[in-house]
Amino acid sequence: TELSPPKNYAKRHQKQLDKLTEVEIIKAELEEKQFKTKLTVIDTPGFGDYVNNRDSWAPIVDFIDDQHEAYMRQEQQPERKEKIDLRVHACLYFIRPTGHTLKPLDIEIMKRLGTRVNLIPVIAKADTLTQNDLYTFKQRIRQVIQAQGIRIYQPPIEADDEVSAEHARVLSEAMPFSIIGSTEDVNTPDGRTVKGREYLWGVAEVENENHCDFRKLRSLLIRTYMLDLISTTEELHYENYRQAQMETRKFGEQKPRKFENPKFKEEEEALRKRFTEQVKAEEARFRQWEQHLIAERDRLNKDLEMAHSAIKALEAELDNLQVGYGRGTGRR
């Protein structure tokens, strides 16, 4: 099922100029065997696409916090029967199939997301890696997640149900899930028509567990642990947010808004830097002008002293002449 239209690459290029992570909301209603589910997908095009990705996670984190905030505000109202729940129950974090390990940006955003939402790491385009490379890549990602203390969603293991417990262990051991995405029907060498991607070497099937973990991810999200994802959001992530807000805010007080849009923050820093440079240039020019004035003052003082000395010398000479003239007059 395709929920969003094909990518607009012209718009994607324009986003490179905007340097801003967007949050796009797509809503759908799924029905299977007369069971309906309202699904809301939040996409974040532009995340991680830039050379400087500082604070690029801010719109994503703020969006998740805003949904918790909106739900908390509804709970504080006198009439609370028809609350609208827009909280994010699961976050699929797609990891690029580099074959190496997690990037610093991945680690930073996953740390922030793991404390706010049920984080599920997913390796995108898994068909671009060989089975050995994919296995090694998964091992490295698990090691980084453990070393960095990143919180990811873990299916609950029920001790009284061995089948469910084994299924939960299989899903946990498969993380991060390796995924192949395709909505096209292709024919396999044995004559089957499946969803997948066709290559010269064969067909990569979406629902073949030997090729990717799509079926495991589907089981986690929809078939087995959908209710647990919702309840974990309510009992863990939302309660953590609500408790933190109640400890720092008075009842009914509005959440302080953060004017920390990465785009505006970057422009503000550029303006501050330019202003600082202009101030330094003006200070240097002022010091140079001050030094010139001091030098000119010293020169004028020196000239004044010389003139004063000359006047003193002339006065002394005049006095000598007057004394000599007086003596000459007395002899006569």
Automatic annotation (TrEMBL):
Cellular component, GO annotation: cell cortex; septin cytoskeleton
Annotated Septin-type G domain residues: 1-248
UniProt-listed InterPro entries: G_SEPTIN_dom, P-loop_NTPase, Septin
GO molecular function, one term: GTP binding
Keywords: Coiled coil, GTP-binding, Nucleotide-binding
Domain of life, source organism: Eukaryota
Coiled coil: 265-324
Gene3D superfamilies named among the record's database cross-references: P-loop containing nucleotide triphosphate hydrolases
Pfam families per UniProt: Septin
Family statement: Belongs to the TRAFAC class TrmE-Era-EngA-EngB-Septin-like GTPase superfamily. Septin GTPase family.
Protein's name according to its UniProt entry: Septin
Species of origin: Polyporus arcularius HHB13444
